[in-house]
Amino acid sequence: MDTNSTSSSIIVRSYQPSDLSACHELFTEAHRGYNNPMSYINSHLQGDMADIEKNYLQIPGGHWWVAVSTDDNRIVGQVAALPMHLGDSEYYSRAPEEQRDQTCELLRMGVKQDVQRLGVGKKLISTLINFARENGYRQIHVTTLTCMDKANGFYQRNGF
Question: Which segments does the entry list as coiled coil (predicted)?
Answer without folding.
Answer: none
